[in-house]
Write a structure and sequence with these properties.
single chain, mainly alpha, 2 domains, 11 helices, 6 strands, 7% strand, elongated
């Protein structure tokens, strides 16, 4: 449902602009506001010697969050935020109770016409509603509290992106070094190369979650061994052994 032209859109925009800075202030320690925030967090994690070879990365996606949550749960989460982070009980002359009443009014008056019938939306917000993502993010902020406490106690990282984020990692290859690095041990027995290429392929399998990424990494491994003089048959034999 699209409600960007609804009668309550003015109230929705006003309240959204009013509360967005408060939400950012409350959630800045557990929110990635841009992609570079994730890079900086990982760099700090590594500097503190917490990044290990067995460290796991996980991305959690909540589908249809903005349209499935009942209004009562959104309102309850909003009340927590306002009472927790507005100590004097008002924002720019509006009391917390007035803000809650205005949002309740907006949520209760989301109507649309379908097949010549009028319907009222009782869960979430329609597309184009300025309060949509704000209320959903406030709900998730309180929903995730137990998980955040557990991970913080374990000295791990937890952050959430404002809308949707794609978590993807790649192996860094130094093209100035890798093609020539193995040539310095060319006088070692063939068994050593068999073990080495198997280790490279196994590493690619462990750190790649997508089959296409795994094949790309295998291709890079093959190029390295081709550059130091090993035949394609030798390389294919070890790739087949992996499967």
């Amino acid at each position: 449902m699209v409600c960007c032209l609804g009668p309550t859109i003015g109230i929705s925009r006003y309240i959204s602009r009013l509360l967005q800075p408060i939400y950012h202030q409350a959630t800045r320690s557990t929110t990635f506001f841009k992609a570079s925030n994730a890079v900086h967090a990982l760099e700090n994690y590594a500097k503190e010697v917490r990044l290990q070879s067995n460290t796991l990365f996980a991305a959690v996606h909540v589908n249809d969050l903005c349209t499935l949550i009942p209004h009562e749960q959104w309102t309850e989460s909003l009340q927590h935020l306002l009472y927790d982070y507005i100590p004097d009980g008002q924002v720019q002359g509006l009391t917390v109770d007035t803000i809650i009443e205005l949002i309740h009014f907006v949520l209760q008056n989301q109507c649309f016409i379908f097949n010549n019938k009028i319907y009222r939306q009782i869960n979430g917000c329609g597309s184009g509603q300025p309060l949509n993502h704000l209320l959903a993010n406030i709900y998730m902020f309180y929903w995730q509290q137990d998980l955040v406490k557990t991970l913080v106690n374990q000295n791990e990282i937890f952050d959430r992106y404002l809308t949707e984020i794609q978590l993807r990692t790649i192996i860094n290859h130094d093209n100035d070094i890798e093609p020539y690095g193995l040539s310095f041990i060319s006088d070692h027995p063939p068994l050593m190369y068999s073990t080495l290429i198997q280790a490279c392929l196994m590493c690619a399998a462990l750190i790649r979650s997508k089959l296409s990424d795994f094949h790309n990494e295998c291709r890079d491994v093959q190029i390295v061994f081709l550059n130091i003089g090993y035949s394609m048959n030798f390389i294919k034999e070890h790739v087949e052994q992996l499967f």
